[in-house]
Amino acid sequence: MSDSITGQEIERLIQLLARLPGLGPRSARRAALHLIKKKDVLMAPLADAMVEAVENVVTCSTCGNVDTSDPCTLCTDHRRDRNTIIVVEDVSDLWALERAAVLNASYHVLGGVLSPLDGVGPEDLTISALVDRVAQGGVKEIVIAVNATVEGQTTAHYITDQLEDFTVSISRLAHGVPVGGELDYLDEGTLSAAMRSRTKF
Amino acid sequence: MSDSITGQEIERLIQLLARLPGLGPRSARRAALHLIKKKDVLMAPLADAMVEAVENVVTCSTCGNVDTSDPCTLCTDHRRDRNTIIVVEDVSDLWALERAAVLNASYHVLGGVLSPLDGVGPEDLTISALVDRVAQGGVKEIVIAVNATVEGQTTAHYITDQLEDFTVSISRLAHGVPVGGELDYLDEGTLSAAMRSRTKF
Question: In this structure, how many other beta carbons lie within 10 angstroms of the beta carbon of residue A74?
Fold first, then answer.
């Protein structure tokens, strides 16, 4: 769309919105128009929320979570079990595990997975910081909760190697049939993993 | 997600993003995380763009377009044909027609279509403003470019009735096969309209 149709401000808003994940050029235009129509009840508060987030949100220097304080709310929470660290790829995974409220543990955000093809090596992740946390003592269990992809599994193996010298128990998430899932739609790998790890009824 | 996991600022950002069309709760979280990760290159400029849009974007009092000036760029453009007015439901339709660059004409944004079930009557749309524009003289043709829905067609008929007393030619967009469309996938209504309006080869 040329600048002659809409003001440059609107055009710029559309272009920036289009860079959000899940929004393409067309849906960005729709979102921009929606924002303009709800200028006072949506666009102004959203702009405020962003300005505040830009100013206040920091990455926790201990676990890699994003929060408004460093160390983050999770790292300073005394009810959390600090003997167990759940290792995740990304903050979104941390959020997902917290929503499921699966384990009252601490976290460690890697910031990605090892991927030689994409040029991501161990020094690009927070693996050495994890080793430091374990070296400080007190950590009894590391749960590696990375995605079940080839890169995720490679990363899990690398971390296990790095932690070899410590007396820490290392576990990973179980493979199996998703709750509510239908066998018919599952891939062979998942099915055979679920069969191998079958549990007594 | 409870406030104990993420700061209230992040939670508020997610909730506001979820109100954008095309973003649900899950994709809003993803978008928020993306914004936080690209704080300086994306979130800060987007916040700025929104603040500017909140301050500067206005609705054109002549045609109903949104722009940074009133009357809008289109209404003040002297190269535009002011004898022809294209009537559209929404600003997004105006943008779509401008992208296609179909007709160098003026516009009139209705702000919706007549819909008794949703409680939208003629007084909720800018129909009387359109009649006023025609009454001022100089307008030779009105192209009614509303959606081909029942409500759209009802609105088109209502507008035609209102303009009965003026010597203005009223037309509507042609029905037919979309360019690149396959007959197999078209509904009977479109096919029969395309057949009725068949043109000499």
Answer: 20
